[in-house]
Design goal:
single chain, about 290 residues, alpha/beta, Aminopeptidase, 7-stranded mixed beta sheet, two-stranded antiparallel sheet, 9 strands, about 35% helix, about 15% strand, globular
């Protein structure tokens, strides 16, 4: 009987020993866990890119490498949010609107001294006001003051520079009409047609990265709201281009190609509504 007890105790001891050893803090006694799931960010490719000069909408590497110097974060918007509009090529016009107004067809040469982008300023002002933005217009008909197309930036420059000494603006929009046809400037989405927008950034001045940052942010906001409505950024530099477009006068100045020669008034108005809302979302609401 005594031998049976000793044998039972020995077996119990041998059974418990490995369990006890496993609880001691040796280096290999780690609890296994599932590997942490890796997260990836996916970037959408630009849509409807048709021009060779169209570049990636993301900021250039130098700009993205300096997040602590974000020009948009550095500039504090005012209350109210003031937007100045100007029209350097003031007589750029839209064929369907000129035809509807004057009945012109064969004689149309892309410019009109009465029915033009400059004459549509009140419509854009109204949409900006509906979004809580305070708009004003540089009241200067550049081409109406005798400026030819290749002289217009030079002619408007002192007028704009003087205006910028009188008031602070949170955003300056130089609105143009592109010369490319409807295929490149028209978007049909959900049964509605829109005039596409493109941004031109002159890269031949030292402060262009700020203009590029503003253009990029607004372009991205537009495409979040109506995918494909922005054609992206056209970066201009080198021979036979202006390369500045008076954007050196202000870090918040944008040159916008607003539709093209074939866009009608309804398409332009729909895009104005989207543009005004996008400005509010990109620059006003994010600053609150």
């Amino acid at each position: 009987m005594e031998k049976m007890k000793r044998l039972s105790f020995l077996l119990l001891f041998l059974f418990v020993l490995p369990i006890a050893i496993g609880q001691l803090p040796f280096p290999n006694n780690k609890v296994a866990t599932a590997p942490e799931e890796q997260k990836y960010m996916v970037y959408a490719a630009p849509q409807n890119v048709t021009e060779e000069e169209l570049v990636n909408e993301n900021p250039d590497p130098d700009l993205s490498a300096e997040p602590d110097l974000d020009p948009i974060q550095q500039l504090q918007p005012s209350t109210p949010f003031n937007v100045l509009m100007l029209y350097t090529h003031s007589h750029e016009s839209y064929k369907p609107i000129v035809e509807q107004t004057k009945g012109l067809t064969a004689s149309y040469d892309h410019y009109d001294d009465q029915t033009n982008i400059f004459s549509m300023q009140d419509m854009m002002k109204n949409y900006l006001q509906l979004n809580g933005i305070t708009p004003s217009v540089l009241d200067f008909d550049v081409m109406g003051n005798g400026a030819k197309l290749n002289q217009s930036y030079k002619i408007v420059r002192p007028v704009l520079a003087e205006q910028l000494t009188k008031q602070k603006y949170d955003l300056i929009l130089d609105l143009h009409r592109d010369s490319v046809p409807a295929k490149a400037t028209t978007l049909v989405r959900d049964g509605e047609s829109y005039a596409k927008i493109a941004f031109v950034v002159g890269a031949e001045h030292s402060g262009y990265k700020s203009n590029l940052a503003y253009a990029t942010k607004l372009s991205e906001q537009l495409n979040q709201m109506v995918p494909g409505i922005s054609r992206g950024i056209i970066k201009k530099e080198g021979e036979k281009v202006n390369g500045i477009y008076n954007q050196d006068l202000s870090p918040v100045m944008l040159l916008i190609e607003f539709g093209g020669i074939d866009n009608n008034e309804q398409e332009l108005e729909r895009t104005m509504a989207v543009l005004a809302k996008a400005i509010a979302k990109a620059f006003v609401e994010t600053a609150i």
